[in-house]
Amino acid sequence: MERHEQIREAYKELGGDFANIYDGYITYSTLSGKLMSRLMWGFNKETNAEWIRAALSCVPDDFSGKMLEVPIGTGVLTIPVYKGLSSADITCLDYSPDMMRNAERRAEAIGVSNVRFVQGDVGELPFEDEVFDIVLSLNGFHAFPDKEAAYRETFRVLKKGGLFGGCFYVSGEKRRTDFTAKHLFVPKGSFTPPFETKGSLRGRLEAMYDEVRLTVVNAMASFCCRK
């Protein structure tokens, strides 16, 4: 079973306790979620699966090292994946205790025991230099208010030769997404400008990392970089 299907099935199994609008939208699993995804991003089932595959491409199926995910959010995309990485040492960090509680409940519900949860700020990570083999950030950078600190800190805690992967919104790729971001998500505080473009993101990542793989599906940029 491919990862996007694994995530979707795990979401369905959790049922009403976790069936909120955000999770259905991210996983393309509910009627309202599909509608939101189509309206904002222009996604269908195939393109939604495509960006999820790209966003998680830095995490090998047999990974057994140390990984940091920041922010964890509700854990809808990653907690089901972590269930299959029983030998990995995974730390999940989020600034919001409420969001993190959702992820903790999800982990408990599907029997994930190799993950610890830490409340903290991506702009000042509570970890030593070069301690993680993988740093993963899904749908975080378009929300972080201090993006420069977030880039600096995620780089700092990553080991030499380690992988930085994830995804976030980039502007200038899809008009409807730019419009929705500007007029809905920025006023609500869930997106925080300034935003990267595809070109600015590639330039930034190539200046920081030795190897960069960047994929943009509509307005969602997914990346995997080696330090």
Explained architecture:
The chain is an alpha/beta fold and 227 residues long. The protein is built from nine helices and seven strands. It has helices at residues 3-14, 21-27, 31-41, 45-55, 79-82, 97-110, 147-156, 175-188, 198-208; strands spanning 66-69, 89-94, 115-119, 132-138, 158-169, 211-217, 220-226. Helix 7 (147-156) links the parallel strand 4 (132-138) and strand 5. The protein is globular, with a radius of gyration of 16 Å. It starts with a helix and ends with a strand. The model is unreliable at 6-19 (pLDDT under 50).
Pick out its properties:
single chain, 227 residues, alpha/beta, 9 helices
Please outline the helices and strands.
Layout: H1 3-14, H2 21-27, H3 31-41, H4 45-55, E1 66-69, H5 79-82, E2 89-94, H6 97-110, E3 115-119, E4 132-138, H7 147-156, E5 158-169, H8 175-188, H9 198-208, E6 211-217, E7 220-226
Parallel strand pairs: 1-2, 1-4, 2-3, 4-5
Antiparallel strand pairs: 5-7, 6-7
Helix pairs in contact: 2-3
Category from helices, strands and their pairing: alpha/beta
> What percentage of amino acids are in beta strands?
15-25%
Quaternary arrangement of the chains shown? single chain
Largest sheet: 7 strands, mixed
Helical residue percent band: 40-55%
Work out the radius of gyration.
16 Å
Q: Detail the poorly predicted runs.
A: 6-19
| Beginning-to-end CA distance, first to last residue | 30 Å
